[in-house]
What does this fold into?
Amino acid sequence: MTDPARTRARAAAALDVAGVSVALSGRQILDDVSFTIGPGQFTGLIGPNGAGKTTLLRVILGLQRPAAGTVTVDGQPRSRRDPSVGYVPQKVLLDPDMPMRARDLVALGIDGHRFGVAVRSRARRQAVAEMLDAVGASRFADARAGLLSGGEQQRVLIAQALISRPRLLLLDEPLANLDIRSGQEIVSLLARITREQQVAVLLSAHEMNPLLPVMDRVVYLAAGRAASGSADEVITGEVLSRLYGYHVDVLHVHGRILVVAGPGSTGDRALAGRDVLEAG
Amino acid sequence: MHQLLTWIVEPGFLASAPVRTAALIGGIVAVVSAIAGVFTVMRGQSFAGHALGDVAAAGGSGALLIGLTPLTGFLGLGIIGAGTMDLIGVQRVRGRDLATGIVLGAAIGLTALFLYLDTTASATTGATQQVLFGSIFTTTSTTIPVITAFSLLATGVIAVIWRPLLLATVSPDIAAARGVPVRLVGVAYLVTLAIAVALSSLTIGAILSTALLIGPAATALRLTRRTGTALLAACVTGVAATWAGILLAYDSYYWGAAREGLPVSFFIVAVIFTAYLLAGCRKAARPRDAAPADDAARDQAAA
It folds into this structure.
């Protein structure tokens, strides 16, 4: 912690997570998780359901206090009300009856946390229109947000999160309820945004294959423990076996990666026939 | 022309002091209910709104029993009820139905007891009608300052929490991540809802307060895509329905040979229901307002 090289690296990083542990009602959810994300890097937070991905994102957002460890965003200790972190949560259910256009939802990203009624201005309208254009949502900007398709809603929510010009964008399972094509569109959009707006992206997913072409780094989370690095460094049988605590194999099939519980591992019994931990 | 006008507006309508007081109070209350109602519908808390009406009924009937005005009971117990519902979990989606149901059941039980005691012990036979179905024509103009004060308080609170409340309605998670005190905002809204329900319990009755809360808002949501416009449309619908109901109730005195006026609450609710149906016809006639998206090409090219 006091190592000067390490301190400099943290100051330059978009996100630094150091030794974070979380226990909820007696159960260890995260166990000494550490990783760093550089400015403008696209990072996949990969892991099976229940690995602690959402909890980790909540710690980074300041919504969950860790039992140990620190979170540093853009060189500053994380605090709530920090506009330098944008957030697209999992399962935002927009009611189809809600009288709110896509562009109104994006405008809430500017000042939705402020008390009082918004003052309309040309600059505000302009900023919203530019952001909608950047995420390819101009065409349905005047439609009711709740009537849009899943992929369209994701674009609007991403615009809402990006309009405050954050240095870090967190997305919790944004591909979970999308068809394959919409999912690919969102991934491509995020890859372009990270470059254009110089924002670091941390995206959680239980499936890594759609992200392989765009990920700069992987944070793999299993059983509350994390490994991070490039996909080649992290997605190996050796590293993942250590995380899961039992033997797993990493298979490369036609450019896709399958993580499979190995023979004789305790995971065989735990998974009871569902031996493919992750498929694409 | 003059004949048509006298046919619509029976003689003496505008000159009647109770009518003018009713129109003023009814108008103010309709605006507060419409504003609270739009958020109630957006947040999916109609059931909570109805439960607060039942709590208000218990308050109103209890107040009569100990010699207070029903309005005191409506407001007092309504606000306490809102706090109780928050404590037992109305803010959590899963806890919502449970919390509402428990409070609602307890409130109706108390109302049954209090109304029984009201009508037997103190021989105020009008109590049931007054508490459950309102007393807009018998409310005296002396209550106008109290009603105005609470209406201003309720609309003021909504104006202050407007943006955080919208954000928390869209997604409590996003709101919390942005530093919005989500629970505090939720409680402030619930208190506003309790005030709106208490005031409409006075005009159209505790049982029917739900109609004035939900009806105009639901009608407005069928007409517009914008939150501000929806609020305005709900206010116009609520006030128009209240005034039309007052007019029809006044006129109804002249309809039958018996010279018996029909209850104003019925007419207000009937007008609201008609407006809701008409708004549905307009919505059905309009094509879907969302355009299909195909912005993938640029991203694919860039990736």
Remarks:
- The CA atoms of residues 85 and 99 of chain B lie 6 Å apart.
